[in-house]
Structure to design on (78 residues):
């Protein structure tokens, strides 16, 4: 089995690579098909994607900020 890398993209999704090296399951344990021929997959982190668990770019429209940036900004406001 290939090593899988999960990268937390700044204010964006989780990038998982290689796509063929993962098994993605829903809350009931059913397999979620991964689109064929993909190098990797972007998994939604903002909760706004209409194509969950995959990212559809909604994070950029809703102003999603990753936890670290959100905390840093709230500390500056205090």
């Amino acid at each position: 089995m290939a090593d899988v890398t999960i990268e937390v993209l700044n204010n964006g999704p989780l990038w998982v690579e290689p796509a063929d090296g993962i098994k993605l399951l829903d809350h009931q344990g059913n397999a979620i098909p991964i689109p064929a021929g993909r190098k990797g997959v972007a998994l939604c982190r903002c909760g706004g994607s209409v194509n969950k668990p995959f990212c559809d770019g909604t994070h950029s429209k809703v102003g999603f900020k990753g936890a670290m940036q959100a905390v840093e900004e709230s500390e500056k406001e205090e």
